[in-house]
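Next comes the chain:
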Amino acid sequence: MLLTENDTYYCGYTDDLEKRFKQHCEGKGAKYTRANKPVKIVYAKEFDNKSDAMREEFRIKHLTRKEKNELLADYLRSEPV
């Protein structure tokens, strides 16, 4: 999940996170990130297969802003320092 300069979130899946983030920053990613420039990656999770990744993307996209913020807070607490 990306944070944009407009303080919104963009969620997607990829098999190469850094490459995809660079594409979004260059305006070559999704239509949404061309209009809402990404600032940083705020959430990333690996999956064993594309189907599971797409399922999680769908779930996250249907969360409210509050629920996304809670997801990120939990994620940041669980990240090793």
Summary: The longest helix spans residues 65-78.
